[in-house]
UniProtKB/TrEMBL annotation:
SUPFAM superfamilies: Acetamidase/Formamidase-like. GO terms for molecular function: hydrolase activity, acting on carbon-nitrogen (but not peptide) bonds, in linear amides. This is Acetamidase/formamidase. It comes from the Archaea. Pfam families: FmdA_AmdA.
Length: 304
């Protein structure tokens, strides 16, 4: 099956809402190449280009893409088959009013650093004698929301600005479907990023993302928030206004999966999760923070 290309030049959103209108319609099982622009819309091309404050429109997400047959209560599976960089440089920046150490002594904002990509293997920051491996990931990906609207800067139950390093080639992400057609959109990719995204960005860059989409109808497990599948683990992903609250949501989702898998009550699943799960920080800089709870596949088979 040939891949259909859907470009940000055709359409991109800055807000996930319940009433999204598609720029393309595809069938379940479709293989797509989604072209994205960098999260700053090309505003930083040199280190003299700085962003004084968080833009009103940021993290353009290519789409929405309607997936035929998706209905509320279904699950949308998105396989991330490949992520290719479409620029020879990324950019990592600080912005006043944003970032984990915003306002701390010695932290200057705004500042921009260009991260040239050398071949397809490493990128660097001038003045620092170290190469950083290119490990592309999707920062913002999600579906139409259930009721409230969220900008593409915000992570929530629909996905959105999850900024999670596991959103990379070879992994899959599952979303609850809240609206007919699901209305998938994605962008805000990074050439590299550490867990936490401490300064507020990774190496922001344009990409071409190969994905395969599939509607899972009438799933046995009700999915409330995104779920990531890696070759080794299942990872419920949750966002909240405080780190502890996000941890609680991700843990609740993990123990519900374990309880169903092992046919035990919630308490026993909770005790078991404390032995085999593992909380991981995705990002701590967006309006909500995001965490995931990794449960090895040795203890949790496919929930769908």
């Amino acid at each position: 099956m040939s891949r259909r290309t859907i470009s940000h030049e055709t359409g991109a959103i800055y807000e996930f809402t319940p009433e999204l209108e598609p720029i393309a319609t595809v069938e379940s099982g479709a293989q797509l190449t989604v072209e994205t622009r960098d999260s700053l819309d090309g505003a930083v091309q040199s280190e003299s280009d700085v962003i004084e404050s968080v833009p009103k429109d940021v993290n353009a997400a290519t789409g929405p893409i309607e997936v035929e047959g998706a209905e509320p209560g279904d699950v949308l599976r998105v396989d991330i088959d490949d992520i290719r960089l479409t620029e020879d440089r990324g950019r990592v920046i600080s912005i006043e009013g944003f970032g984990l150490l915003d306002g701390h002594e010695g932290i200057e904002a705004p500042r921009s650093r260009i991260t040239p990509v050398e071949g397809d293997a490493t990128l660097s920051i001038e003045g620092i004698d170290a190469d950083v491996p290119v490990e592309p990931l999707v920062g913002t990906i999600g579906v139409a929301t259930e009721s409230e609207s969220h900008t593409t800067l915000v992570p929530h139950d629909h996905g959105g600005n999850l900024d999670t390093t596991d959103l990379c080639a070879g992994n899959s992400v599952y979303f609850p479907v809240f609206q007919a057609g699901a209305m998938l959109a994605m962008g805000d990719c990074k050439a590299a990023m550490a867990d936490g995204e401490m300064c507020g960005t990774g190496a922001e860059i344009g990409t071409a993302i190969d994905v395969t989409v599939e509607v899972l109808s009438d799933p046995e497990i009700e999915l409330e928030r995104p779920l990531i599948e890696t070759p080794e683990a299942w990872k419920p992903v949750a966002s909240a206004d405080a780190l502890e609250a996000a941890c609680e949501l991700a843990t609740r989702d993990a123990i519900e999966l374990l309880a169903a898998e092992h046919e035990v009550d919630t308490t026993d699943a909770y005790l078991f999760a404390s032995l085999v799960g593992g909380l991981e920080i995705s990002q701590v800089v967006d309006p909500l923070v995001t965490v995931r709870n990794a449960v090895p596949k040795a203890h949790l088979s496919a929930p769908f």
